[in-house]
Write a structure and sequence with these properties.
The chain is of the alpha+beta class and about 170 residues long. The chain has helices at about 5-25, 70-75, and strands at about 35-45, 50, 60-65, 85-90, 105-110, 125, 135-140, 145-150, 160-170. The strands form two sheets. Strands 1, 2, 3, 4 and 9 form a five-stranded antiparallel sheet that branches. A four-stranded antiparallel sheet has the order 5-8-7-6, with no helix packed on it.
Amino acid sequence: MRWYKVFPVLLAVMISVAAVQSSGADPAPAKKGDKVTLEYTGTLSDGTVFDASSNHDAPMEFEVGAGRVIPGFEKAVQGMKVGEEKKFTIPIAEAYGESNPKLVQKVPRNEIPQDREPQVGMGLVVGAPGGQQMRAFITEVTPEFITLDMNHPLAGKALTFQIKVLKISH
């Protein structure tokens, strides 16, 4: 048999072997520096879902150790393998921390924009010292004052996550 007749068959076999080898799940667990792709659902202690990857266009992706997610989440993902699922609760200190009472302020109603009627739960962007801008949420409305809370909406709460690792890139 001539080599040019065998070559296409040999090439097809080599491609098939390479595809089988690369399609297998990498058994190495997630570690610092790895890029992890996962599905998640986050709930509060009363069962309320506050976020889920199914609400977004794609699964969550982040680099372990880069500080882009809350510390408790990052810690829980380390050591997990592709296909592994886990449910865990992040204590307040490793999530968004305690709610800081200094970040809750009463503001005279005439100091906020008058383009909309303020309502509890409404978000505003407010100026902070040093020219920074912060997101604030209205927690109380009276005829004279608006109470603004500049804490993260999940501050003071333990967070429970159900996650499944889809991919790990080393």
